[in-house]
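Per your request, structure below.
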């Protein structure tokens, strides 16, 4: 499949296979016999696959390519000439893994027609957020620095665990270099791609070699995300802005406005009490008209 998919780490082999595919197509177009079989992974190790580590096999499985038994492979070999094609891909595919790869925008173009196209993720801003949702940087901004570091470190550990095929990130030590866990250039590239999708950043392929531990990677992400510090009142002020918009959309129905005004009195009284105020403001609020209360919301915003 290297000639069709451009398999990572097999550039010379992929080029040779692509030439053979083209030669078979050229011969058939000229009325001559020609058939090139693009083989997927076989269960039985060969000179090409015998060196593959468990990490490599898990990466292939995540890409949707499953190993062929010798019996199945030979049966397909016998059936191929009768199909009248010049190039055939002979492999087992995992439909769920293909859908997952498509969701990560990592499915090779030649396989995209086999799965329903997912909605493309928007990565134009740092912290790839779902449409209408907060970005990663926005979710991290209100957190204390220590909690922010923990969230980013756990994110990196989770992605490292996924690349290595672990069920969760508990097996990944935040202070241990990922190369000691079995990372190579290909798994490093896969991790980079997953973190790109999670953060919306464009990270270098050398990320885990420049920052070898999950904690070091998390620190680098924090720097690149350029998370703006927030003051304690910013979330409240943001909610007040949203509340003002909602209130403006309420009809002039007296009952609805009275109920809203009553709740506003309660909220403002709570705010004054939390600030250590005396009882006088509470009395003023009870005496305020609806219009004065709505005006006060605008002033606090």
């Amino acid at each position: 499949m290297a000639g069709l998919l451009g398999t990572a780490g097999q550039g010379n082999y992929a080029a040779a296979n692509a030439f053979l595919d083209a030669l078979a197509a050229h011969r058939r177009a000229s009325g001559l016999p020609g058939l090139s079989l693009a083989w997927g992974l076989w269960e039985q190790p060969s000179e090409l696959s015998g060196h593959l580590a468990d990490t490599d096999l898990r990466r292939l499985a995540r890409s949707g390519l499953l190993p062929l038994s010798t019996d199945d492979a030979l049966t397909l070999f016998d059936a191929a000439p009768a199909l009248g094609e010049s190039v055939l891909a002979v492999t087992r595919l995992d439909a769920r893994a293909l859908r997952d790869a498509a969701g990560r925008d990592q499915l090779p173009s030649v396989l995209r027609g086999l799965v329903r196209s997912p909605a493309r993720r928007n990565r134009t801003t740092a912290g790839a957020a779902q449409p209408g949702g907060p970005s990663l940087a926005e979710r991290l901004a209100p957190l204390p620095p220590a909690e922010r570091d923990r969230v980013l470190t756990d994110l990196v550990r989770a992605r490292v665990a996924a690349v290595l095929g672990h069920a969760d990130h508990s097996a990944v030590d935040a202070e241990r270099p990922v190369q000691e866990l079995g990372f190579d250039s290909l798994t490093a590239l896969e991790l980079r791609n997953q973190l790109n999708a999670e953060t919306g950043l464009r990270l270098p392929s050398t990320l885990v070699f420049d920052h070898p531990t999950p904690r070091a990677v998390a620190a680098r992400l924090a720097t690149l995300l350029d998370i703006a510090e927030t003051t304690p009142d910013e979330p409240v002020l943001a909610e007040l802005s949203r509340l003002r918009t909602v209130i403006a959309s309420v009809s002039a129905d007296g009952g609805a406005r009275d109920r809203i005004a009553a709740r506003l009195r309660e909220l403002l009284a709570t705010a004054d009490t939390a600030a250590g105020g005396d009882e006088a403001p509470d009395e003023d609020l009870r005496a305020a008209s609806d219009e004065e209360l709505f005006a006060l919301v605008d002033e606090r915003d």
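The longest strand covers residues 36-39.

Regards,
D.
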